[in-house]
Amino acid sequence: MIFARVHGGSSPAIVLLHGFGAFSGVWDAIAADLGTQHRVIAYDLPGHGQSLDWPETPSPKSAARAVLADLETRGVEKAHFVGHSMGGAIATLAALSSPERVASLMLLAPGGFGEEINAPLLRRYGAATSAEELRNCLVAMSTPDFSPPPEAVDALAAMRAQAGQKEMLAKIADAIARDGRQGVIPQDWLATLSIPVTVVWGTEDPMLPFSQTSNLPPFFKLHPVPAAGHMLVEERPGLVADLIRQAIGPA
User: Fold this and answer.
1) Under 8 Å between Cβ of 114 and 95
2) CB 219, CB 105: distance < 8 Å
3) Model-level pTM greater than 0.85?
4) Which site among 44, 87, 152, 200 is 20 to 30 Å from 190 CA-CA?
5) CB–CB of 15/88 below 8 Å?
6) How is the chain split into domains, by residue range?
7) Strand pairing of 4-7 and 39-43?
8) Contacts of residue 235, Cβ cutoff 8 Å, sequence gap at least 6
9) CATH superfamily name and code, 4-116+183-248
10) Where residue 167 falls among pLDDT bands split at 50, 70, 90?
11) For 198-247, how does the pLDDT look when each residue is reduced to its tens digit (9 = 90+)?
């Protein structure tokens, strides 16, 4: 089983999938905003937070299966998926494996859309445990003028304090950036998607370069975010919430 925070209660449902090293709480402001009109389900992905107890090192495919299975137990037949970074890859794989279950995709600087990844920074972030280390990593993954809210940093530090969390993140980081490159979702797979797909990407992303947007299928809607880095959920929460509402339409 995986843990989820549920906000609101009205349909259609919105599924929020965080990036590597984070947890469902990073979505709190966005989820509270969207939850006034929608049922919002924010997950702790396998190997993270309250879903730390996982029998093996989770992969994006196994995480996608876990999310879809949990939605089935909740009686959610179809939902709009929003995923950041690793969560974007997981959302995409969920749509590819069960297209009838996914109404739309919004991908925030998604993983799996190009081989290039800042592997040293990824591993550094995965190994960070103190508030100071985490703050420095968040700034490094964003833009130099970004100042992470102290409460967000403290929440991440509390999540990282769990026994076994640091070790699990090290395993996941090794799997994501094996040999310094990340796995890529084949373009011919992406071309089979028949749902609306919006891709949001910071033009100054130091983790996954904005240049990876050049490989997007032509029917994907691209929304560049000028002067933004990789951590769009923290850097531009209001913009992300607005773009989600625009993409899925009225409740």
Assistant:
1) no
2) no
3) yes
4) 44
5) no
6) 4-116+183-248
7) antiparallel
8) 142, 143, 146, 202, 228, 229
9) Alpha/Beta hydrolase fold, catalytic domain (3.40.50.1820)
10) very high
11) 999 999 999 999 999 998 999 999 999 999 999 999 999 999 999 999 99
